[in-house]
Amino acid sequence: MRLGLTPAFLVKIVSSVVLIPARSVHKSELVKMKLLTHNMLTSKSMKGVTVGYPLGINVVDIKVTEVDFNPEFISRIIPKLDWSVLWKAADTIGQLDDLPKELSQEYENDNDFLKKVHHVLLEVDIVNGELVCPETGRKFPINNGIPNMLLNEDEV
Amino acid sequence: MNQAGKRYLLWFAQEHVEFRFQEINSLLTAFNITMDFIEKPTDLQPYWMVKFASEQDAKKITQRSVLLRSCIELWGHSNSVDGLHEMMKKFPEHLMEPHLDEDKSFKIEVETFCKHFTQQEKVDKIEVFEYLPYKGPVKLKDPDTCLQYIEYYGVDPNAPPESPYRVFFGRWIASGLRQLIKYLSLKTRKFIGNTSMDAQLSLLMANQAQIRNGDLVLDPFVGTGSLLVAAAQFGGYVLGSDIDYLMLHARTRPSRITQQVRDDDEGVKANMMQYNLEKHYLDVLVNDCSIPFWRDNLMFDAIITDPPYGIRESTEKIGTSKVNCKISEDHLKTHIPAKVEYSLSTVYFDLLNFSAKHLKMGGRLVCWFPIFRDDYSEDDLPRHPCMKLEANSEQVLTKHTSRRLLTYEKIAEYDNCEDVENTIKDFRYKYYETREESRQERRSRKAELRAKGRLEAERRKVTKLSE
After folding, report:
1. Most C-beta atoms within 10 A of its C-beta, which of A124, B160, B208, B446?
2. What ipTM describes this predicted complex?
3. Omega of the bond prior to A54 within 30 degrees of 0, cis?
4. A23-56: pLDDT as tens digits
5. Architecture of the domain made up of B184-434
């Protein structure tokens, strides 16, 4: 019975499929990791590692994209950050852009400062590279912008 | 009659009925709003008659609710149609006037619950309201004032009574998020998997978690990111992790029957971009969540997740039963880590422990938990001394199984809770133990059915040809 289908009928089936109105995304838009995430990750659970923080960054290339600025989010995320680690990471990848080394006291009302933090946290992306355990040198590759933190069974 | 302006009718969609109290309660505490019942609602009725301190409050709750269809300022209600009209004729005009003035266009909408009427019948029902002191023009599209007339015929569509049990009349204030459910539907979602959570339940979970603008939200079993879409919709900034490398890289088999291969640009981020939420997307990572890798003092505002139950998605963690296992240098580059069974009870035990450690004080963990309906007891739910169970309601899946949406709130600082005992029952083991037929039996039964169907189709074809 199946063989009896004419090609014209097949075309009909295909055309009746609902098209997904998702906008087509260029692959390069998807493949990046943020410094904010780097600030939160450790390798503390590896065998023989005690602190595992901060992870080193080997960058192959970075990309800067504009992202909508939300001062509320930035001022709420700052207390969750390890500021010196962020500062150093931004320095490593050459995106420091006169970000102060010390966190000022009244940053919540300092819009220029919040914008700088916003830039470093959300607009700068690591496209390709790896994160490195500071104690063992174990490398965690960033593939297509998704860091692979999976350990092997002999490392846990 | 001063209080008349403060009475509201909350009109719900007749879906996920058990989640109503949970959702509205979460929103009330999130916005710090009080609401009183004028009349205690019964389980199935789609309306609540309530009091709010202000219209602003009623609006806030309604506009954020997934289960609410609309909220109206209640002008009158009665057990009979005549009773309502009597009441409305006596309704103080100065309360209606501001909404029915010369410069205010208006319309009246008729809704009948559980009984169908023709358009003409509905128009007839509207005509009766002729006595209203309106001065403005009628406008059917986007009027300044929308009045709603609702007749409620009970919840049994097979035997609606002659006349309605209840009738309501009032002014429309706000609508719920029913449209958003359609907008975020999985049917049109770029990247979905076999166990993606539907839009309505995802939004409901985000409401349970009280997500608001600027929150840092984590889903440790992110999958295709359906929960994160909902969280981002409410202003959350989202992070996800999953042990499934192929899933996060969108290289698993497509779940759509019409799709042969996954598109090149699928992924959690692609979903965010589809709904213009990419500014709320932080990152997703491949990781085994049984192995802590977040910085110790990192605090999330909310954790929403749907862990694998071990039925449709397997529960696994990195590990091996080999003693002194060592991966040789040669294999290291392409080695895929070995995984061992991660029992369901441990998954939940770890999840609660993780949340107790990494949630801010007052932050919420919202997750599903599969159970057996026959021997369900609230005592068997996952527990943690730092986490208070705030809400718990059931979604029935099969005759014997269901899952419960659990909402926990962090109420105490995490401090050496390591000696907490794991008493969570294992669902998976029992699922396979007690179900009526094994996978093998089910497979052969289905195959038999298919064979029978094929035979019949053949036979029909033969008789058709011979005719």
Report:
1. B208
2. 0.80
3. yes
4. 454 545 545 689 999 999 999 988 889 899 999 9
5. 3-Layer(aba) Sandwich (3.40)
Q: Write out chain A residues lying below 8 Å of B341, CB-based.
A: none
Which residues of chain A make contact with B262, given a CB cutoff of 8 A?
Answer: none
Q: Is B243 in Cβ contact with A150 (below 8 Å)?
A: yes
DSSP H or E stretch at residue B187? none
Inter-chain residue contact B279 with A70, CB threshold 8 Å: yes
Give the list of residues 6+ apart from residue B377 with CB closer than 8 angstroms, or none: none
Closest-CA residue in chain B for A139? Answer: B333
Per-residue pLDDT reduced to its tens digit, A57-102: 988 778 888 899 999 999 999 999 999 999 999 988 888 878 888 8
What's at B34, amino acid-wise?
Answer: T
Higher pLDDT, residue B214 or B437: B214
Structure tokens at A74: 């930035």
How far apart, in whole angstroms, are the C-alpha atoms of residue A1 and residue B460? 12
Domain ranges of chain B: 2-176, 184-434
| CATH topology classification for B2-176 | VC0802-like (3.30.2130)
Going through B20-130 in order, the beta strands assigned E by DSSP cover 35-39, 47-52, 68-78, 106-113
3-state SS assignment for residue B323: coil
Cross-chain residue pair A148–B245, CB shorter than 8 Å: yes
Helix, strand, or coil (residue A125): strand
